[in-house]
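User: Modeling request: complex.
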Amino acid sequence: MDTHTPTLGLEFESGLTLLEVPSPRSTILHRLVGARLTESATEHDPETNATAYWIDARNTAATQVLYDCVSSDRTLESLRVARAFTAYQHHSLVRRVTRQAGPETELIVAPNVASLYHDADLPEWEREGLLAAALETLAELGRVLSCPILVTSADENRADTVAEYAATTLECVRTREGIRLVRSGEEPTDDDGEMGSAIDDTAGYWHGTHWQTTIPYWVDLYGAVAEGQSIVEAYDRGLLEVTA
Amino acid sequence: MSRTDPYAFEFDDGTVREWRLTDRGAEPTLVEDYTPALFVSGPDDALADLRARLESDPKTVETRVERWATDLHEAHVGERSELLRVGCDRVDDVRQLAREIRGVHESGTHAPGTFRLFDVDLEPGFRYCLDRGIDPAPTRELRTLRLELEDRELADGDVSGLRIEDEPVAGEDGGGDPRSALETLRTRLEREDPDVLVVSHGELIPLLSEHATELGFEEDEFHLGRVPGWTQLAGENTYESYGRVGHSPARYRAPGRAIVDTSNSFLWNQSGLAGLEYMVEQTGRPLQEAAWGSIGTLLTSRQIRLARREWAVLAPQNKWEPERFSDLRTLHAADRGGFTFEPKVGFHEDVHEIDFASLYPRIICEHGISPETVDCAHDAGDFVHDSHRVPELGYEVCEHVPEATDGDAAFLPTVLEPLLSDRGDIKARLADDPAEPEASRLRAESGAIKWVLVSCFGYQGYRNAKYGRIECHEAINAYARDVALTAKRRLEDAGWRIVHGIVDSLWVTPREGVEPEPLEAVIDEISADVGIPLEHDGSYEWVCFVPLRDSIPDGPDEGAGAFESGSAGALTKYFGKREAGAYKFRGIELRQRSTPAFVAESQRAFVEALDRERDPEAVCDVLERRLSSLRGGDVDPSALEITTRVSKPLSAYRKRTRTVAALERYERRGIDRQPGQSVRYVVADDDASGPERVRLSFEAGGEYDVDYYATQLVRACESVLSPLGWDRSRIRRALHDGRLLELSAFVD
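Assistant: Request completed. Predicted assembly structure:
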């Protein structure tokens, strides 16, 4: 399997990556986690401890969606999930992860990372500081552990705050070929002409000005699910969205 | 005889005025040495630093270190923390000081969340009773005086329409003017010396007082309290809770009397004074504070009092403690809701409803589920302890450790057990058919308890529940599923068929061609097995389970007009006739608050016709008569009034709904309608887009929109006939006079 450079993976390792998602209910994170753990399951001893943490907000960690992203439920055995229902709990979970995560940790995700900090039960004066502390902690954790930390935000204004702490910001754009991740601040090129490559095995990487990718690209990126993983298989497993 | 405890409290400038009920009235006592306090936990050095800073704060009168438990689990394992107690001069300063501790003293020098605060957001009267060990339950029978104004009169500031105890102050001949209204009120207040003012709107307090001043009454001549003066305690407020918008009006105080604002008292409206008094006793909130408390607030107060008194646990300000990280399998199992059996749509005869009475609270008590016991995983240390596991989830539930606290059971069971047992006693006493007013007092108390018991489970999962933990919520659910499945298995083995079930209720009917075991015996066996009493709630001659509206195929003129059985049943829509003769309705139009009386009453008539004739055609005949009186203009417009709740301010509505039209009319009349309040209107012309679309209940005259209400009638009829496979096109064909209905009555 090819390895692609420059890879997003390198940038993840250096810290926090923000995915700007179209909706709080976006399932891209579920699929990325599924793909990542599928890859690591083939490499690692299944007996090792938790390797991935999911800091949940707004009940995003729908278990069925996650199961649907992997071919075997066992793939997700190393994932640990805890749900926050208030910003205070979210902040506490971020701090807890710093105590629990270690060198074996491969991935930490926090969907809707800023969302709870805007709830009415948090006084106005406290919002910014508490969110900043959580984001700073996550960014630092990514640096110390050299592991990717993926956070999402569906709200543009909040995403701006999160982006201040993120090493990389990617925008998820739904296209006819699938979900395209665009490096923030750069316009995606026209869909025309991209279609062929998008459904092709070599699809989805650096196009000069943007990252264009489908989920299989991420699978490739992380060293691939299995030898000879085809687009059709990826589609069957729900990793790839083909709406055309 | 020792002095009785006071029942009403006022806080002014660092002093407390307590009011004790006497035989003739009530007497005040001034207390000057009360120091309300909040507590702070944090690392020792940070606390020492904070203490030094606060000592120069003029709001602070004293600081000292005390030992308390910061959560139930800490108390459960017999530990305590050293907290900084910060005494304030005035009760009003507590919240401000709390804000400064986190927002000024913590911010910048310490990480957010370094300081955790306790006992911050307690209502002043409740706090005082808690601190002083006062039981604010009234010590003699209370005298109430009810004062009412219509919304419109309130908006106009017109007090001449005042009603006292349902009697208009103005005479029949309309001789009322503001001065004589106030004179009458003054006489009544002097003569009756009420302990409680039950007002239709809190705003009556300033309105009446200000009018008195304008009309030249001296302050000591006219006052709503036992001494002159009134105060606004809190401003009006729109809030969101459980995804619903609510509105709480401003709150006022009249010295020496408790005020109950009936526009803002769930408990008063559900259970009246008796329910309110019971809750004062159970929560420790003085009457006025109990009156405006939501069920969640009341439950929290009860928990805070128990935690403080028996567990030495303070009330946390915010919910910092998150759930533990768990694997996906556990989360998957925990995320499932209560068990439901899909209702079998249709008309069923010989149906029995059996219920697990107070299922959730009983599970909590039976299995010792509590924030400190679920997944406690504590090192037993000096204490001997034992544990059991939650089905499906495997959470370990630790036994209560009696040595660690004053309580003799786990926390949540201790909160609920007395309520469950009171409810049982009340049920037993009501069964003896006591005379009034005893019977209505018992019913009111039972009603008040019911709401708390119903809420206690959901509350465990509520994000801001002070002592709630999502794991408890999940554990309770897991036990409930286990209980339901056990019951199902046993009932089916005994020859019964389950036609419907939701969480704690099952509807069963004898399986065809089988002689089932006697139901009572099966029920007793299940009760003994699961440890929770299963009760035979009622026997029905027949029950209809209504399909979901979406699953009724429709279309004005196509299709056979009937649909196959197998439509999805709505979980909570059914109606039936008890063997004793009474009907039971759930979820259908006549139970909905917004349904006009005429439609509701017609739907009842449809059900009665169905019962009498067992024939859909006969029901259509009733519909036909109802439609014809609607067309003939024979329906009293007040029976066509629709009541709906406003969910947002007028400016926030994007679509031009009927509610918007009603709000526009209210606004035109100068009447304030806030989100969370209701609007009442008659649909005048549903095709109009402006305020002409509706007419408010107090606006006289005008027509009603016949076609609109005809559609409502047809829908109500469809709900009754859909279990029998009839949809609205078949209903239409059954009508003899086609002119009664526009085609539009059949389309959405």
